[in-house]
Write a structure and sequence with these properties.
Glutaredoxin; single chain; 4-stranded mixed beta sheet; 8 strands
Length: 151
């Protein structure tokens, strides 16, 4: 029960969409808790990239709400679970062997991890040499690509 490419790291599935206040607040709370430990967290925004939502659904076997935390390939839980572990000091013990990271804000994406596609400029469409409009193969459904510096 481990998401792709999560061995040896902390992976947080969250959303930056403010549509459901409680969900957004839970995501912000977990991000803040993890930021306090000064470790690298692979943040996967399910609103910005449907691939991340698919990954989470496949790993969990059902569509679950976010946030969801994995540490070193092991599922830890959602917002309430992680908050309780943090308050009891258990979360710190789970993270203590991970290297401390003093990171600067990314100069390309400002830590959003996505930028507009450089091929189609975010339109999701390209025009071929024959003048035919096609779906851009480089970007996601929002016309975004992963930041080359953060990825």
């Amino acid at each position: 029960m481990c998401p792709p490419d999560c061995e040896g790291k902390v992976v947080l599935y969250f959303t930056s969409l403010r549509g459901v206040r409680k969900t957004f607040e839970n995501c912000c709370m977990l991000r803040l808790i993890l930021k306090g430990f000064q470790i690298h967290v692979d943040e996967r925004d399910v609103w910005m990239h449907s691939k991340f939502r698919q990954e989470l659904t496949e790993v969990m076997g059902a569509a679950l709400s976010v946030p969801r935390l994995f540490i070193l390939g092991r599922y830890i839980g959602g917002a309430e679970d992680v908050q309780l572990l943090h308050e009891e000091g258990i979360l710190g013990k789970l993270l203590e062997d991970l290297p401390v990271e003093c990171r600067q804000v990314c100069k390309i994406c400002a830590d959003v991890r996505f930028i507009p596609c450089t091929l189609c400029r975010g339109s999701c469409k390209i025009v071929t040499s024959l003048g035919i409009s096609e779906r851009c193969s480089e970007c996601n459904e929002n016309g975004l690509i992963m930041c080359p510096l953060c990825d």
